[in-house]
Amino acid sequence: MVKVQNKTNLFDQIAWNIVVPVLILAVISFYSIYFAAIDDPTHMGSPIKAVVMQALWYLISFVVIIFVIQFDAEQLYKIAPYVYGLGIFLLIAVLFLYDRSIAADVSAKSWFRLGPISFQPSEVMKPAFILMLARVVHEHNQKFVHTIKNDWLLIAKILGWLLPVAVLLKLQNDFGTMLVFIAIVGGVILVSGISWKIITPVFVLVAILSIIVIFMVTTAGGQSFLSHFFQPYQFRRIMSWLDPSSDTSEAAYQLWHSMQAIGSGQIFGNGFGNLSVYVPVRGSDMVYSVIGESFGFIGSVAVILLYLYLIVQMVRITFDTKNAFYSYVSTGVIMMILFHVFENIGMSIDLLPLTGIPLPFISQGGSALIGNMIGIGMILSMKFHNKDYMFSQAGDF
User: Fold this and answer.
1) SS3 (DSSP) at 118
2) 275: Cβ contacts below 8 Å, ≥ 6 apart
3) Chain segment 209-265, per-residue pLDDT in tens
4) Rg (CA), the chain
5) Cα(189)–Cα(199) distance, integer angstroms
6) How far apart are CA 93 and CA 99, in angstroms?
7) Residue 367: enclosing H or E segment and its boundaries?
């Protein structure tokens, strides 16, 4: 690692092409939560209070970003095992100290209750896991050349670090969050240098198994076998995804109303704040229905393009750093955000089953926002420290 003179000021070291899209998404978040609360005051309470709470979480998140951005690649590499260990500790602790009222509502032991505030530790475990995964891949690639045998060894290491997280999330009954971790692993594997002779058949096998599982859900015998791994409500979600009009009063009620709300917006939407279709949990899981109903197809696509712009800018910063460890970190963060966007919007329009995945930077909730903002902070760290240090292509420290 070679120190170089820093001739740029602090303003130039901030990746504004990342910060500005996030700020725009924050404005969209405040709008969506405000009118979702007006539409559903029973579950969300006062609209002003809901927006103030979201603004407070944003304020806390920006403080977290300022803290995270101080760490360069070498420091992030060193703290990875400690933050991973802290995350595992929190995932264990929540199994004993989970909020009973939330667990009764969502059938998952995933939230702490701290006075009036609930907190989901698995959300902050995501960036911690990304750091640990990046360290494992970087360390392996520094020691071993890529052969089929060594690539399988790397896969074993990755799965070894994923296993404790998977077991704890299974005990929490949080399958949706587990899918995010799988997406992170898939993305990092793609850029880790593992041979396509391994990646291709593995991905094909996963696709085939997914199709088989979906088919089994539609049969009584298949559900009987899968009941050892999945809960009854998860079967209902898949069935409502396959045929949302079959049970619009119960299992598919939320999905059906979300589709009605988005469809009612048509091309240009019903106008600012004009929501006429009731959608349960509209401020969090189904927040995209607010955008679709208010601003129609044009507004919905604009939000997707904003996410696309944000992701493209993160990719550009990754290439500018020329650092292997950073590239694994950024890939994990990009996959985390990309999967959230894809799954949340997909489930809102019946492209994917309901999983309770929030829409990044827009959905109501502090835990997910802080987790995503930690990821953004690690991306900003790349630009912030890129002028201070020159790294080799191998990412040596």
Assistant:
1) strand
2) 35, 36, 38, 39, 261, 290, 293, 294
3) 988 988 888 787 787 887 777 777 777 788 888 888 777 767 788 888 899 999 999
4) 21
5) 8
6) 12
7) helix 366-386
